[in-house]
Amino acid sequence: MLLYLFKRMAVFIPTFFGITLLTFAMIRLIPGDPIELMAGERGIDPERHAILRAEMGLDDPIVFQYLNYIGDVLQGDLGVSVVTKTPVLDEFLALFPATVELSFFAIIFALSIGLPLGIIAALRRGSMIDYTTMGISLTGYSMPVFWWALILMMVFSVTLGWTPVSGRISFLYYVEPVTGFLLIDTWLEGNWAAFKSALWHLVLPATALGTIPMAVIARMTRSSMLEVLGEDYIRTARAKGLSSWRVVMIHGLRNAMIPLITVIGLQVGVLLAGAILTETMFSWPGIGKWLIESVRRRDYPSLQGGVLLISAVVIIVNLIVDVLYGVFNPRIRKQ
Amino acid sequence: MTEITSKTDGENPQMTTEQTDSGAVVASTEVVNNYPHPIVEFWQYFRANKGAVFGLVVLVLLVLMAIFAPLLAPHPPNEQYRDALLMPPAWAEQGSMLYPLGTDDLGRDLLSRIMYGAQVSLTTGSMVVVLAVSFGILLGLLAGYFRGLVDIVITRLMDVMLAVPSLLSAIVIVAILGPSLLNAALAVVITQLPHFVRLTRSSVISEMPKPYVTASQVAGASHLRLMFNTILPNCLAPLIVQATLGISTAILDLAALGFLGMGAQPPTPEWGTMLSGSLQFMQRAPWMVTFPGLFILITVLCFNLMGDGLRDALDPKLKR
Amino acid sequence: MTNPLLHIEDLSVQFGSFTAVENLSLKLELGEILGIVGESGSGKSVTMLALMGLIAYPGKITAKKLEFNGKDLLSISAKERRSLIGKDMSMIFQEPMTSLNPSYTVGFQISEALKVHEGGSRRARYKRCVELLEQVGIPDPTKRLKAFPHQLSGGMCQRIMIAMAIACNPKLLIADEPTTALDVTIQAQIIELLQSLQRDQGMTLIMITHDMGVVAQCADRVNVMYAGQLVEDRAAEKLFSEPNHPYTSALLSALPERSKGKNRLPTIPGIVPGPLDRPVGCLFSPRCFAVQEQCSGNRPPLELDSDGATRCFYPLRAEVIKSTELKSEIEGVDHQHDLEKTEGWA
Questions:
Q1: Which residues on C lie below 8 Å from A233 (Cβ)?
Q2: Domain B38-318 maps to which CATH number in 3.90.1280.10, 1.20.81.30, 3.40.50.150, 1.10.3720.10?
Q3: B290: exposed, middle or buried (Cβ count in 10 Å: 0-12, 13-18, 19+)
Q4: Do A277 and B167 touch (CB under 8 A)?
Q5: Which of A290, B152, C53, C340 lies 20 to 30 Å from A306 when distance is taken between CA atoms?
Q6: Fold that domain A96-334 belongs to in CATH
Q7: Chain A neighbours, 3+ Cβ pairs < 8 A
Q8: C149 backbone dihedrals φ, ψ, rounded to 5°
Q9: In this structure, what DSSP letter does residue A143 have?
Q10: Distance from A240 to chain C by nearest Cα, in Å?
Q11: pLDDT tens sequence across C182-204
Q12: How many CB atoms lie within 10 A of CB C170?
């Protein structure tokens, strides 16, 4: 198992360095002079310009510049936002919990609906339930996320007035960030009204964001389950006189989960991409909205740092998925 | 698969035995002659999938709508009717048959814009995939055929590209190049590329050790001939399926970029761009939100349905 | 004799329009070993899966009688059936490696059977598992119980399957080609193990196989099946010395031991007919060496004789030849009308 883990790590470390190379190149590729870009519209006098160039090492050979960049990254220095003048890493860490909270509920939504739908569809293959489920699933992942968010908002917030339109929590409440997760923070404070408000604000964005993963999970669960249910060991389990529930859940689902874990892991990337749109739609103060704002404000250090950190998150999640895969699949664990 | 292998039959006699292995065990000559033409057989499988046929039919209608938009559309796409701002669809109380799906905040006819929007979405969507597939096949073939250092460099690069969520890398690329439909399309090509490279590479690697490749090698085929004439045709089936599904992803990503103001710029009647202006009119003019998105959904759904049908028809594993 | 352990009358299994098993009847006493022989596709396994209630949805089962241990399997509920199978009636399969769940330890899978049928404490179940592994000849049982199937060899997996099947001391054990997927040396060991277990426990054993050698080694009685029909039923010794059906005879002469001195091993030309190419007459007629005119036009009924039964117009042994006069109706048809109990298990 350890060896397996090391092997996976060996793949991920070069990938991470590859990404640093890309983000490094990204800043160089932006047309125009980086200092003028950073100075923004105010402009800068030539003398100061030269000093800054030397300070930032822009006159050094490109290899040195890259090595410097790597050195900074490894020390946690991702540069300073041009707009807010705060370190990029600090901004990211302040906003990240909001995105995690949203993504977590989105994936919970996706799993709690997608898994049962997929299982039922597989068990009732060819029935009306199966066709309906697959229809929902297909529609779900053909859906443009931003449009789906708009429709949900239009129906549930604007027309019916059931849910708040945007934000993480009602402006009536101020919650001191401890963990950054509003649900946890309000719960720690014992402020139930605020907790309820935060939860209520989560419903629509999480649904919008979770719809595509839900559709994918339902579909993959169905096909994985169908394959597993045809296996010899399922016949053995039936021949033991086990209840259908036990055959499907203990013997079927456990094995169907193995390919599903990879699929669910891949959804994290989809989720983060979706978060960019969903957060923008619902004014959710997370990483996705921040990135879009960075693009609009031409805050390139923030964009660069954000891309690097999000990729790091994706890589780490993939590593976790690989470990889980090993846990669920004894054939890998014991090698 | 059948369709493709049969094309190579002439130069690779082994393929015929491969074919019968997956098909029927009995291989007497009269029976072989009764096999339907590969295209006929493909169509029979495809037709069996009702969803796929439905997708195809609707898609043909959408394509016709796009091609004949200048004839079908009641108004020019960018003509502003100042006396008809935010008109509801024809069936609503204040609606008018002049503007069947209503008008937007500048008084432009929604239906006409959607029809011209189909032109934009369908052409850019398929162009993106054509480019991504071509470069993907090239890189995938190189990696899978030559292995070694070439493979390592290409595979690593693709791994890196896959680690960044596709929409995010598209946004970054557009941020570098500047927002326009062309740049957005280019960005989507780059984000789709790794999928096609990986797919081609893995099929090439699984085809390489097969006897028909060795036979061709022994017969003295050049690298180019082996790569493009011998191996590539046998890797096409999954690529065709992936390409169909790729068009739907491309349309979605282009619409998302348009929505974020990073793709097609107004007044281009692009579906995503049309939606980006509608947010503030959500309450007053829900039709502005509903229809462009509905057309994105329908188009993408059709490509996905067709992709499924193609998979069923082309994947020999699922054939009886 | 009044109450056989297993009593099947006119069992048919249909998949759509294809009849996999046709009007099969069978009576078995406790302690008997029955060998069911036939080529692949002859319906041997399907018969037994039907008995276990393991035929999945499109398959449809009909029978006049399907009784096990005095219980009518056609009328009991799914729950009652589940309490029978795996306990009083259990089965082992052809592919031991894929028949065990790859995600669970061997110990879990054996004790699961015990838990469902007999309950008892974890400790008691664990003790019983160790005992069972010893019984099936697995060395170092405590260690093996923690192993996953992929860590064991095929022969070892089949022993585990056997341990699982006999965990609740079944009255009937069905072994569906238990040795086909194994090495030749292991095959003999597994057959011996099954025989000795059968002797010790006094259970009934049904051995499905296409290997006449295996049947010769252990069976008391043999049923020969062809294309879903029972073609010959006879005591093993008699069957081997004087086969009555041409098919049985052909199977026997295909045994290497029986063709010493010949240049080539005799074979039966062709394959078992599939759903689409069933002949009108006797199902075996296209491949039969003794085929006559009547054979290709009509289907022969199963005729009882002095020591068994044969489905042939022209049986090989002269003394048991009965009237070859054709019955007005084919046997299968007149039963179709009075099928009273019909059940399909989804």
A1: 98-102
A2: 1.10.3720.10
A3: buried
A4: yes
A5: B152
A6: MetI-like fold (1.10.3720)
A7: B, C
A8: -50, -40
A9: S
A10: 4
A11: 888 888 889 999 999 999 989 99
A12: 22
